[in-house]
Amino acid sequence: MSLLTAQLLRGLTGLTRRLPVQRAQIHSKPPREELGTMDVAVGLTSCFLCFLLPSGWVLLHLESYKKRE
């Protein structure tokens, strides 16, 4: 690596060290009420239906999608 390239890289990295970094101010509190068994079951079922079922359908019918009609 040439001397000029090394100096340019050193200058660029020095510039990034001086830039301010914004950090998110996230504060969390404990839940007001605990989740019940039914709430968890409904949440997991809806995630399954929304994400896994369509991808399973595509994987199951992959051979028919490959065929040209």
Provide the fold topology.
Blueprint: H1 3-18, H2 37-60, H3 62-66
**What's the average pLDDT?**
82
Q: How would a crystallographer describe the biggest sheet?
A: none
- Indicate the proportion of strand residues: under 5%
Query: Assembly type of the shown chains?
Result: single chain
Q: Percentage of helical residues? A: 55-70%
Overall spatial form = flat
In terms of per-residue confidence, which ranges show pLDDT below 50 for 5 or more consecutive residues?
A: none
Q: Rounded to an integer, what's the Rg over CA atoms?
A: 26 Å
In N-to-C order, the SSE pattern is HHH
What is this structure, in a nutshell?
The protein has about 70 residues and is mainly α.
What are the salient characteristics of this protein?
69 residues, mainly alpha, 3 helices, 65% helix, 0% strand
